[in-house]
Design brief:
Helix 1 packs antiparallel against helix 2 and helix 2 runs antiparallel to helix 3. The longest helix has 32 residues. This protein has a domain of 93 residues. The chain contains 5 helices and no strands. By secondary structure, the chain is mostly helical.
């Protein structure tokens, strides 16, 4: 019975990986491709690792598969997020048919805050006046 469950899990994992590879080919820009590659491949590897744990039936193989799965679920989405943020700031733009860009207003707000902070650092606290009424100039 566990062989059938392992085979089904392997088939489900392989189909997720197939969907991920199709997403890499079909999606229009880096960001949607990265989404397809990380989400579907993470679930696909989950199915393959589950199949390996069930097929071998050993506790140490099951523990190694579970550890690899936890590591994969923790690192793949985080790394894809960081790579896509870096790419958004410096590289490829969104596809023309992308209708929602939630990150652009955040970046504009962050840039304005950085400019304001740089302007405060440049002028110094004595030129802009004391920040608190009791914080006067030191004689």
């Amino acid at each position: 019975m566990s062989d059938f469950i392992a085979a089904a899990s392997l088939l489900i994992g392989a189909s997720f990986m197939l969907v991920a590879s199709l997403g890499l080919v079909r999606f229009p820009d880096l960001y949607t491709r990265m989404h397809a590659a990380t989400k579907a491949t993470t679930f696909g590897m989950g199915g393959v690792l589950l199949a390996a744990a069930l097929a071998f039936g050993s506790a140490d193989i099951a523990a190694q598969s579970a550890l690899a799965l936890v590591f994969l679920f923790l690192t793949a989405p985080v790394s894809a997020h960081l790579i896509s943020r870096a790419a958004y700031r410096s590289g490829p733009h969104l596809a023309p048919n992308t209708t929602v860009d939630d990150y652009k207003p955040y970046l504009a707000e962050q840039a304005a805050a950085e400019e304001k902070e740089a302007g405060e650092d440049k002028g110094g606290p004595e030129e802009s006046g004391p920040a608190h009424p009791s914080a006067g100039k030191v004689p």
